[in-house]
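Dear colleagues,

As part of the handover before I leave the project, I'm documenting each prediction I ran so the next person doesn't have to rerun anything. This entry is a single chain, and its sequence is reproduced below.
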Amino acid sequence: MNASVCFVSSGPGAADLITLRGLQRLSQAAVVLADALADPALRAFAPQANWIDVGKRGFAHGVRQSEINALLLQQAHEATGLVVRLKGGDASVFGRLEEELEVLHEAGIATEVVPGVTAALAAAAHAQRPLTRRGLGRRVTLATAMTREGASGVTPNGATADTEVFYMAGRQLPGLQQRLLAAGWAPDTPALVVSRAGCADALTSEHRLDRLADATLLHGGRPTVVTVGVGARAICTAPLTKVKSDTQANPEPHLELAVLSGPTPKSS
């Protein structure tokens, strides 16, 4: 008899951003196939499970999607208990969830998806910049900064959204700046850059759109989300502290996040 597969969204950063339901499913797992962005601290909640690393970062070398699909099928056939596919952020947002669900459904394997906090929401919370604003920002677009094929998620200013949020933008900031300006966004449009959103070492910087590329050094090599438009505007003056960076002469605003701990949930 096949085991069922549960897709658990772990959130974008620290382990305490996973949901209670996600922790419950994780604590019941016999096998965990884990993404690179899932906090290693989550292993403590499933010490009984066989953990398999299937992580990949952007376009860098990692486990191919076809290999992940094959592993999911193999574990579903061979595992003696629940198989958990642990994904960073929310599995339904740029997590290639549809490909993995399709493979399992075709094989007749039961699945469940547990939602989570996506990076766009974690970045907005960290910077205290709501993505929607009453009377000003009613439409939000989530897009990738660039695909492997070179396509861009940029849309003309005002065509679909008051605020656009770009994922996987760390290496794309200069090009993203150029494409947004070419699409008609004003040079002085506010742009917010948050790297490692949801983590204790998250970094935040704000820019005019025509200076977005300036954020490259500060956020280089870190998972980065860029918010452009209404949702990037500051709300009065937030109580921000300063973080020193070796990559810039001027420090950038930063919020310190406390990590909460709690008891390991029991299996139901």
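The CA atoms of residues 120 and 175 lie 20 Å apart. The chain has six helices and twelve strands.

All the best with the project,
I.
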